[in-house]
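[Discussion] Sanity-checking designs against the backbone

I'm trying to build intuition for which residues belong where. Below is a structure token string of 300 positions. I'd appreciate it if someone posts a full sequence so I can compare it with mine line by line.
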């Protein structure tokens, strides 16, 4: 009988034969990409703002209505005030934390579900497990997202998690499809077949050695879902299906529809400009990440 620890060491050696792009080379390539680096800086600045809000250093007076209605920009109110006398700049700053919270929750959860579902489906392809997962993915993909979100919001009434649940329930399917295809390709590689011949358990091979080699997909998909979650929150909040208790860029845009009619554009600008800059930064970063972590670039 083959010693288990010896088999594991030999398999680790075999697994090292397929690692896609080495992490140090991928990160070095990412840091030398000027547009990607610019995107990382933009995202980093917004992340620091979100952290500052979370720690109570910034944006804590977003709900205070101590000023007059529609006051102009000044040293005290950088973007003026809204109809209720609330500081627009404070509301915009606080919305950064809301965007990052929703983006992180949805991105991490949907990526985890997609990784697990896609890995199981790809490893046990042409089995009942694969049939069930593919069927669920097909059903969820066939439902119009915003109709599904409205149904979830109605079913959960005023639950603050309705929007996140709707997004996670649909966003994980794309990641699952990509991971499934990659696992089906990887399981025929020599290092996997060698591990199977050594007698290592299939679940161990799958989640310790095969799934990590889909990391480039998971990393890029998590960033893409993060962006999609922020955009979706803005749309749902604008429609009244998103953030309920609090403030977000979507709610600010919804409020600005009435303010614009009165000739007040500060709320619109304070929500749309940071949203545009953050999404642009993320898109630049994601494009650079996809290039840097693409295994096909490993031999370059």
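Best answer:
Here's mine. Compare freely.
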């Amino acid at each position: 009988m083959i010693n288990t620890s010896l088999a594991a060491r030999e398999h680790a050696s075999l697994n090292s034969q397929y690692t896609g792009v080495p992490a140090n080379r991928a990160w070095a390539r990412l840091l030398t990409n000027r547009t990607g680096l610019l995107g990382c800086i933009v995202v980093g600045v917004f992340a620091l703002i979100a952290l500052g809000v979370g720690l109570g250093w910034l944006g804590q007076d977003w709900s205070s209505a101590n000023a007059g209605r529609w006051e102009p920009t000044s040293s005290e109110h950088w973007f003026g005030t809204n109809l209720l006398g609330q500081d627009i700049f404070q509301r915009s700053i606080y919305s950064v934390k809301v965007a990052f919270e929703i983006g992180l929750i949805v991105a991490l959860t949907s990526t985890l579900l997609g990784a697990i579902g896609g890995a199981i489906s790809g490893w046990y392809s042409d089995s009942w497990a694969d049939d069930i997962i593919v069927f669920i993915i097909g059903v969820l993909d066939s439902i119009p997202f915003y109709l599904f979100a409205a149904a979830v919001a109605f079913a959960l009434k005023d639950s603050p998690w309705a929007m996140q649940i709707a997004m996670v329930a649909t966003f994980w399917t794309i990641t699952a499809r990509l991971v499934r295809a990659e696992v089906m390709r990887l399981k025929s590689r020599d290092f996997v077949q060698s591990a199977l011949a050594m007698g290592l358990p299939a679940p161990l091979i799958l989640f310790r050695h095969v799934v990590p080699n889909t990391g480039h997909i998971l990393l890029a998909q998590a960033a893409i879902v993060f962006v999609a979650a922020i955009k979706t929150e803005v749309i749902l909040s604008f429609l009244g299906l998103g953030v309920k208790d609090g403030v977000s860029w979507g709610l600010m845009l919804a409020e600005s529809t009435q303010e614009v009619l009165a000739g007040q554009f500060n709320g619109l600008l304070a929500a749309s400009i940071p949203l545009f800059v953050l999404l642009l930064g993320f898109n630049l970063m994601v494009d650079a990440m996809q290039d840097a972590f693409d295994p096909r670039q490993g031999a370059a």
